[in-house]
Amino acid sequence: MLDVDVLDDPNRAVVALDPVRGRLLAELGQPASAAALAGRLGIARQKVNYHLRTLESHELVQVVEERSWGGLTERLMVANAASYLVSPSALGQLAPDPARGFDRLSASYLLALAGRAVREVGALLRRATERGKSLPALSIDTTVRFRSPADRAAFAGELSLLVAGLCARYHDASAGNGQSYRVVVVGYPAPAAPASAPSSIS
Known about the structure:
By secondary structure, the chain is an alpha+beta fold. Among the domains are: about 1-85, Arc Repressor Mutant, subunit A (Orthogonal Bundle); about 145-170. The chain has six helices and four strands; from the N terminus they run βααααβββαα. Strands 1-4 form a two-stranded parallel sheet. The chain has a two-stranded antiparallel ribbon with strand order 2-3. The longest helix is centred in the middle third of the chain and has 24 residues, at about 105-130.
């Protein structure tokens, strides 16, 4: 089972976003049969089977075991991922593109960058998984509380200089066997959280 399946095909996204199928995917973190799912969700078994066939045809669930008795076959299904994320690729030309000339200090540009990361990392992760390899990545997540807009602006200026300096130090355009990495730094107001919650970096 994948940790995250990035849905870049619009048909797969539509199937996964259906409320009933979404509930089934949530229940299928562990193998279960149509009969068991029908009992848990209070839905007719025939309807559960219909939705399971649709999920299976779009490679969102898979059979892990078949049990036969009395001329009947019971299939145990499991979701192919623990969670799902819809890629902007599923929106085709409606997907945001950072190259379209957004104001680089706008929230719209931040969202376009985030969407590009989902699209690119999703495609890279799929290819790595198909080859049985891991995808090396770096993520930093922390919270900082500024005393004033002036401090926020000063922080942004210093951070920009630090990142530019690091990139200049380690970038080697002549490295034939090197690998290019996209580095994106974003910041936005944090949602309300307990004031006592400590900052952390992971």
